[in-house]
Write a structure and sequence with these properties.
single chain, alpha/beta, six-stranded mixed beta sheet, two-stranded antiparallel ribbon, 15 helices, 46% helix, 14% strand, flat
């Protein structure tokens, strides 16, 4: 089924008369309106200019208070005393110089995607010129009051300018996450590069883009599923190449991004002409950039630039930081959960015959095998019954086989499995370095034997107790969707991402979502 807002592809063949008519048609403009991101950027830059003016005057006032009221920098004698009105003229002079220097330095240039840190060299360089200009004027006009105040003005002025830009960045992000001031984007192409672009736009609303859909080959399906931190999200196919112009006008598209997969399936010039006719901005992602930028390694050999591609793994200092955090968390859990684990052990022993712990060989990082420890949730001969169950299952994926009504489950085991209590002993695997607190699910060898080549990349990361797949559906996810989430995690790892996953795991475990 096509989405309700899909457009049927035009007939691929085109006569000479229709081609001439298409070229000669009048330019079609969308409804008169400005791009959302541009409007928001203009407002933010106007606010920044007002904030800079206020920062200068506030810096002069604070500098005056420190020097003349608190006498920071030496005693102020009666003959050295000056009122604040003495510094009003220098403050106006600084503001005037700033309004000339800052635009020339590009501080107020419209950059929708500029971060606060990008302003550091611009502000430091520009404001240094402002203070230097004021000092030079003070020298020519023989400004006699304490000039130590200019040091305070320089320090506090920069601080205030960074502070109000930081607040503005949070406000802007708040607007973008609610769809205010965003650019509506249409992607042309559904290859690997197109999927990665969809992943970035759907997964991070703070980028300022709202993806309306993509155009591509109808034989490949009417939608694409992409992995993001928020789970598996769907991007609809809206039509084919013939529909780009009509879609841009009807859906009020601000940007059309063509993802070149190198196969020559996309007539880039034709799409560019459509964008010109509709006044939409045109961008192209070349075949080289189909890989995500965070996996590109730029270097040089004897002055010759080279580009390499990093694997979807966590290495170097990132690995050290992650391992240190794992040890700290594991030790804390051992202390807190020791008594509850002892109670669970007693309940398992009283409920059914067999050992308290279940040990199973799993495939870890780089394909190395390790013995994973869990509380036993099933009857003693559960492994022998597994083969018969797989033969009898209808549908499903053998690489991710779980039965919500598994007859091998014990009474206590159902509760342990539902709330993931059975996985608590794996904290000892974390201490031994075989697992991590956050990471991909550790697979069985029989599951790995069925992997496609691209699935093997998930083995580059140490398996974890929890991960993106656990907090985004757990057993309800298809196998390919689970792997995409694992690869997204490896390529976009940060300590903060681990913290967010752990925090999201708590409600997922308490509610027992998708666990059986």
């Amino acid at each position: 089924m096509m989405p309700t807002n899909s457009v049927k592809s035009a007939t691929p063949s085109m006569t000479a008369e229709s081609h001439i008519a298409m070229i000669a048609r009048p330019m079609v403009k969308p409804s008169v309106r400005g791009r959302g991101s541009l409007q928001l950027a203009l407002i933010m830059q106007a606010v920044a200019m007002v904030g800079d003016i206020m920062s200068v005057f506030l810096a002069f006032w604070l500098g005056y208070a420190l020097r003349y009221r608190l006498e920071l920098g030496g005693e102020v004698t009666e003959d050295m005393w000056s009122s604040f009105s003495t510094f009003v003229a220098p403050a106006f002079a600084a503001t005037t110089i700033m309004l000339v220097v800052f635009p020339l330095r590009g501080v107020y240039q419209i950059r929708q995607k500029l971060s606060v840190l990008d302003y550091v060299p611009l502000l430091v360089g520009g404001y240094s010129l402002v203070i230097a200009g004021v000092i030079i004027l003070a020298f020519f006009f023989q400004f006699s009051p304490s000039r130590l105040i200019f040091l305070y003005v320089g320090i506090f002025g920069l601080g205030f300018m960074f502070a109000h830009r930081l607040v503005a960045a949070f406000v802007r992000r708040w607007f973008l996450q609610r769809g205010i001031g965003v650019d509506r984007v249409l992607i042309v192409g559904e290859g690997k590069g197109g999927r990665r672009l969809m992943q970035a736009m759907l997964g991070n609303r703070g980028l300022g883009y709202r993806l309306v859909g993509y155009v591509g080959d109808a034989s490949r399906g009417d939608r694409l599923n992409v992995a993001t931190e928020r789970g598996i999200l769907t991007c609809p196919r809206l039509g084919g190449l013939d529909d780009v112009g009509e879609l841009v006008v009807r859906l009020h598209v601000d940007e059309v991004v063509v993802v070149d997969d190198g196969k020559g399936d996309i007539d880039i010039k034709r799409v560019l002409d459509e964008c010109r006719n509709t006044d939409a901005q045109f961008r192209i992602v070349p075949d080289l950039l189909q890989i995500s930028l965070d996996r590109v390694d730029f270097s040089e050999i004897g002055g010759v630039p080279t580009i390499g591609v990093r694997d979807a793994s966590i290495r170097g200092w990132h690995a050290v930081i992650k391992r240190t955090a794992d040890i700290i968390v594991a030790l804390m859990v051992c202390v807190i959960a020791m008594i509850p684990m002892a109670i669970v052990a007693v309940l398992i022993k009283r409920d059914s015959e067999g050992p308290i712990f279940y040990r199973q060989s799993r495939v870890g990082q780089y394909g190395q095998h390790f013995t994973m420890i869990k509380f036993r949730c099933m009857v003693n001969n559960a492994d022998q019954q597994w083969a018969e169950m797989v033969k009898s299952m209808q549908g499903g994926d053998g690489r991710l086989f779980k039965d919500p009504n598994d007859p091998r489950m014990t009474k206590v085991g159902k509760t342990l499995r539902r709330y993931s209590i059975d996985e608590l002993p794996q904290i000892f695997n974390v201490l031994r370095g075989e697992m991590s607190v956050v990471g991909p699910r550790p697979p069985l060898q029989r599951e790995v034997d069925q992997y496609d080549e691209w699935h093997m990349q998930r083995l580059l990361v140490r398996p974890g107790l929890t991960g993106l797949w656990q907090v985004n559906g757990r057993s309800k996810l298809a196998f390919d969707e689970m792997v995409r989430l694992d690869l997204y995690y490896a390529e976009n790892w940060t300590p903060w991402l681990d913290v967010k996953i752990v925090l999201r795991t708590i409600p997922a475990v308490l509610l027992g979502r998708g666990a059986y």
